[in-house]
Amino acid sequence: MKLLVPVGVLVFTRYRANPVDGLLVGVAVGTGFAVLETLGYGFVALLASGGDLRTAEAVLLLRGVSSPAAHLAWSGVLAAALWHAHARRWRPRAVARLVAAYVLVVGLHALTDAVSGWVALVAAAAASMALLLWVTHRELVLGRRAVDGGPPARPGSGRPVPITRPSAPAPPVSPTVRLESDGRPSGAVPTDRSEA
């Protein structure tokens, strides 16, 4: 369900050339989803406990620590893989990477749902964040090397596609020049002695 928003952004916007854009969209979607899901769990705990705030607080604290980290990591990793596949024109290796990311994310989510207790949930969230940091490093640092003097990325090489940069800087904007009544720029020294 969370993948619908990144797919919509990929299809309907111009932000689709760089996998880092997908990573950012995925992290934003995952964070929003985690907040809503955590509030829902807290509300259900409050109702189920008959209005006991301590029970709802315990649920919100546990979910507030583990859920945002996990969901933003999972959505970010999956959206980055989706953008990568699009940037590689859906080549088999890029699609395989997308499928592997999906299987990994589903596995981590199933693991998080299967375990209970603070230590297990925080460990699963930490593992998810480590995965997100690795993907971020791969896309940002290794992708920059391909742009900033490293060997060029080849399609199908597993390396990020280089980000294109403009070839020349934009020309400077000229300051506004005021003209005198005779058409000379204000403050200009006359060149003809007859004008002096």
From TrEMBL:
Chain ranges passing through the membrane: 23-48, 60-82, 94-111, 117-135
Instruction: Please name one Pfam family that this protein belongs to.
Output: PrsW-protease
Q: Does the keyword Transmembrane helix apply?
A: yes
Q: Where is this region: Disordered?
A: 146-196
User: What keywords would UniProt list here?
Assistant: Membrane, Transmembrane, Transmembrane helix
Locations of Low complexity compositional bias? 149-167
Question: Membrane: is it a keyword of this entry?
Answer: yes
Q: Which PANTHER family match?
A: PROTEASE PRSW (PTHR36844:SF1)
Q: What is this protein called?
A: PrsW family intramembrane metalloprotease
Q: Which organism is it from?
A: Pseudonocardia xishanensis
